[in-house]
Amino acid sequence: MKIYLVPIGSVHGQCLDYLAEVLSRLFSADVAVTQSCPLPQGGFDEDRGQYDAAAVFRGLAACAPICKKEQRVLGIIDADVYAQGLDFVFGLTDPRTGYALIALTRLRPEFYSAAGNNALFCERGVKEAVHEVGHSFGLAHCPQASCIMHFSKTIADTDRKDLKFCPACQQKIPQKISARKLPIFEAPAKTRRKFY
Fold first, then answer.
1. Which of 41, 44, 136, 184 has the most crowded Cβ, counting Cβ within 10 A?
2. Residue ranges in the chain whose pLDDT is less than 50
3. What cofactor does its activity depend on (predicted)?
4. Protein fold of 2-138
5. Distance CA 133, CA 115 (A)
6. What is the pTM for the complete model shown?
């Protein structure tokens, strides 16, 4: 199985490298960072100050086509994104196509007027990436609040989640990707990686 990480616009390289490392371990997958795709033309809503997720997905599909059933593409955009019927999204997935997306802006503590905290930002980015890749394999939202597949309505929901699948969700993943049982990956207590 192959997961492609596709930066959309400008995304810090260390952020991408760290996401690749974690996703490779968690999904027992070959993960590659590709060249950047441009920000979607006409996808920015000036009134909202956000990008439309549908436009981002269209640009992602044009820039990084999926050629095989076992491939997945995770777009990473350092912008605020909304979807139809939602004020914003931390991430979004189209399980029919295998395309997933995470938006970094609302994962930064500074967005909520808190002090910058790279370790927290890094952890949030990884959680959202794992969550969306999980959706790309057909996993649904999980009712267990600590499971990585639990829906995040607020950033507090993301912070409450563990960086692991609950036993029920973990049991479903090998069936979805025909791989060995997933290792549980715990985020390091302290990270030296800089996302920004």
1. 136
2. 178-196
3. Zn(2+)
4. Collagenase (Catalytic Domain) (3.40.390)
5. 29
6. 0.86
